[in-house]
Design a protein that fits this description.
Largest sheet: 3 strands, antiparallel
Helix content: 40-55%
Number of strands: 6
CATH class of the largest domain: Mainly Alpha
Order of helices and strands: HEHHEEHEHHEEHHH
Oligomer: single chain
Shape: elongated
CATH superfamily of the largest domain: Winged helix-like DNA-binding domain superfamily/Winged helix DNA-binding domain
Structural class: alpha+beta
CATH architecture of the largest domain: Orthogonal Bundle
Number of domains: 2
Length: 205
């Protein structure tokens, strides 16, 4: 292990939050970004068979417990958060089309989306407000967070499953036609009628 790898290792152990290549290069002073990237890859290989792994989530690096050992560190069994069908659909739409406004979400789903659904996703730490769309009314737009990638074990949004995989899980029913249309896989349809009022539960069990 060379001196740069040791310095990056120390910096990541001491950091309170995951760090990007840019942040590490700046923190280490005169380190070149390509050298930092190579050192991170080397460190990740070094830790691959250890009890902790060095992983990249959303272009930020951090150490985490090896998946097969995580249960040893839990004093209490974590309650699994279950999302409502509406929250799952909204999360999928945001992930594939971010940044996206509430009106755009409703256009895809064909029903109105309650504020509580978005609140659940933001409380879970998976969705954040990403600013406002520069159009009349300046609607709020939403995007996923690094915590979303980390929770689902994704390095980046490029690792999201394809449309066919989502259909197989049933996540696109009843909005699969809208997804097909947006992805260029479906035929043109008549404009939707006024959205129905959604009657769903936004509670997470």
């Amino acid at each position: 292990m060379n001196q740069l790898e040791r310095a990056i290792e120390a910096a990541l152990f001491a950091a309170e939050e995951p760090m990007s290549v840019d942040a590490l290069a700046s923190f280490l002073g005169d380190a070149e970004k390509p050298d930092v990237r190579n050192a991170l890859k080397a460190l990740a290989e070094t830790y691959e068979k250890r009890g902790i792994h060095l992983v990249e989530r959303g272009k930020r690096w951090h150490f985490e417990t090896a998946p097969d050992l995580a249960h040893l560190l839990r004093k209490e069994r974590e309650q699994v958060r279950r999302l409502s069908r509406a929250a799952t659909e909204v999360l999928a739409i945001i992930a594939y089309h971010e940044p996206v406004s509430r009106a755009e979400i409703e256009s895809i789903r064909g029903v109105q989306t309650s504020g509580g659904t978005l609140d659940v996703l933001m409380e879970a730490g998976w969705v954040k407000i990403a600013g406002r769309r520069e159009v009349p009314g300046r609607p709020t737009i939403y995007a996923t967070t690094p915590e979303f990638l980390d929770h689902f074990g994704l390095t980046s949004r490029r690792d999201l499953p394809g449309i066919a995989e989502l259909k197989a899980t049933g996540l696109l029913d009843p909005v699969d036609d809208a997804y097909d249309d947006l992805m260029g896989e479906g035929e043109e349809e008549e404009p939707h009628e006024a959205p129905e009022v959604e009657e769903d539960s936004t509670d997470a069990a």
